[in-house]
Amino acid sequence: MGLEALVAKEVRALGYDCEVENGRITYKGDALAIARSNMWLRTADRIKIKIGEFKATTFDELFEKTKSLPWENYLPENAEFPVTGKSVKSKLFSVSDCQAIVKKAIVERMRSHYKKTGWFEENGPLFKIEVALHKDIALISIDASGSGLHKRGYRAGQGEAPLKETLAAALVMLTNWTPEKPFVDPFCGSGTIPIEAVLIGQNIAPGFNREFVSESWNWIPEKVWEEVRIETEDLAKYDQPLDITGTDIDHRMVKIAQENAFEAGLGELISFKQMQVKDFTTTKEYGVIVGNPPYGERLGEKEAVQKMYEEMGKTFSSLDTWSIYILTSNEEFEKYYGNPATKKRKLFNGFIRTDYYQYWGKRPPKARQ
């Protein structure tokens, strides 16, 4: 939620026309598109294949319309196919019943196609099916990602309120940062924002270090995945120099951040250090700061967080060529920081409604011809 435009931009950059809806992007593609989307999309939660969408106000209707879908094109005879569901503002509100009916309808279709009378073994590749009802429209899909796309495979350790990798990537992509500018995260926690900045700066595919459930599907040839992995190697800019720093007040988090960066194979590219935000100084110019500081939502933390926002405002006030981007749910952030933002953008950090406060620095002078 809140990142639809960014995901759509990424999908179009991969070469696919798409439609933007609330909370999702829809587009047409082949097996290669499934593999490339999983490998390359930095800000999407997961890739799902839309098998059918139809109106269903009775269980009979849900059963018959599900049964009429071409399940044999997707599910081999030994497929493991659990069904999950959700229902919002629909006559069919019992999710467990909807799941059972969709499962039964798929089994009936498969029995007739595979000429089978008994049970299906379900000991083969996994196809996670979802029936999602919204205002009596049923959308039936298969999950092609497996673990959510935020699970990049590098997070060995984390703090108590970790930022999702997909949101961290979005925070970087919503700035004016380019790989030749210095980049600093003064609240780096487990290092997610600096690591995502390296992946973006060197154009490394976010899925390069993990596997996807659709890699086990018989109708996506192995050579498709090979082709996509070769593309990620060809497009990566491993020799792009970067100046990326992550600091945190907690030395344990700094250690975890370093471990995560090495797990991602990027340990040499980020400099992590223990530091309070008020001690930050730099002589560099035209850099970018991206921070996800504590929000002060817990009892007893509020005053300490307000004080920290004040100190941050004073510390950053002299960085007039730097652009500063801060994510927080604290609606009084600008008051304590001491400066109104150039622009604000509403984003959700999990279920917490936050604002992304953006302070744009001076532009570098144009080089003379």
From TrEMBL:
Protein name, as recorded: Class I SAM-dependent RNA methyltransferase
Keywords carried by this UniProt record: Methyltransferase, RNA-binding, Transferase
Organism: Cytobacillus citreus
SMART domains: THUMP
Pfam families linked: RlmL_1st (PF22020), THUMP (PF02926), UPF0020 (PF01170)
Source organism superkingdom: Bacteria
PANTHER family, A to Z: RIBOSOMAL RNA LARGE SUBUNIT METHYLTRANSFERASE K/L, RIBOSOMAL RNA LARGE SUBUNIT METHYLTRANSFERASE K_L
UniProt keyword Transcription present: no
Any GO BP: methylation
Keyword Methyltransferase found: yes
Residue ranges of domain THUMP in the record: 33-144
InterPro entries associated with the record: DNA_methylase_N6_adenine_CS, RlmKL-like_Mtase, RlmKL-like_Mtase_CS, RlmL_1st, SAM-dependent_MTases_sf, THUMP_dom
A GO term for molecular function: methyltransferase activity
